[in-house]
């Protein structure tokens, strides 16, 4: 966590928080707290500037301090107020919760869901393959039926063809007389 965020939580000025840390620097080894480099601070400013249109840069005159879980805990002993103690307890609990979340990651659940989805997809593909096989068989049978019907229709046309009349045509003979 960065010093200006912690200062806001502890209800103190960033300057006062930094001053208390510098006075007790032996309590903050590098794995508890470190100061951001100018490059890191500039990258942070640019990132925040893209999110917040009106940005007061006065708190970026000096690169911010970054605190780990242990550094936040140590801050409660440096900033001696009831608010500091309460906030430190809450922040440490938040760090512990994040650690638990990382250790018992929902990624495992996500991976299990992905596996189930893959199995379901494979099953559905197999079902559609079987359906397509049945569909192909049905298609072939329909083609055979259509061929048989076409053959029957051609036979019926030959049978239903008008025949030449056999015998005497009365109408022709009347006109001849």
* Percent range for β-strand residues: under 5%
Widest beta sheet: strand line-up: 1-2
Can you give the helix content as a percent range?
A: over 70%
Q: How many helix segments?
A: 7
List the keywords:
single chain, 177 residues, mainly alpha, two-stranded antiparallel sheet, 3% strand, rod-shaped
Write the layout of secondary structure elements.
Elements: H1 3-10, H2 14-23, E1 33-35, H3 38-51, E2 65-67, H4 69-78, H5 82-103, H6 107-159, H7 170-176
Antiparallel strand pairs: 1-2
Helix pairs in contact: 1-2, 4-5
Commentary on this structure:
The structure is a single chain. This protein is mainly alpha-helical. The chain folds into two domains: 3-103, no CATH class; 105-160. The protein contains seven helices and two strands; from the N terminus they run ααβαβαααα. It has helices spanning 3-10, 14-23, 38-51, 69-78, 82-103, 107-159, 170-176, and strands spanning 33-35, 65-67. The protein has a two-stranded antiparallel ribbon with strand order 1-2. Helix 1 crosses helix 2 and helix 4 (69-78) packs antiparallel against helix 5 (82-103). It is rod-shaped. The protein starts with a helix and ends with a helix.
Provide a brief overview of the structure.
The protein is mostly helical and 177 residues long.
């Amino acid at each position: 966590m960065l010093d200006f965020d912690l200062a806001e939580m502890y209800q103190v000025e960033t300057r006062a928080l930094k001053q208390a840390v510098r006075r007790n620097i032996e309590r903050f080894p590098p794995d508890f707290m470190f100061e951001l480099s100018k490059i890191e601070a500039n990258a942070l400013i640019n990132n925040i500037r893209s999110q917040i249109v009106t940005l007061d840069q006065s708190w970026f005159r000096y690169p911010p301090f970054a605190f780990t879980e242990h550094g936040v805990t140590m801050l409660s002993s440096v900033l001696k107020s009831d608010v500091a103690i309460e906030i430190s307890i809450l922040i440490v609990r938040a760090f512990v919760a994040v650690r638990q979340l990382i250790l018992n990651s929902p990624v495992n659940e996500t991976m299990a869901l992905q596996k189930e989805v893959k199995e379901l997809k494979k099953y559905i593909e197999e079902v559609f393959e079987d359906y397509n096989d049945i569909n192909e068989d049905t298609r072939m049978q329909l083609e055979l039926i259509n061929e048989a019907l076409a053959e029957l229709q051609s036979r019926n046309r030959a049978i239903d063809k008008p025949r030449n009349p056999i015998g005497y045509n009365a109408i022709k003979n009347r006109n001849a007389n």
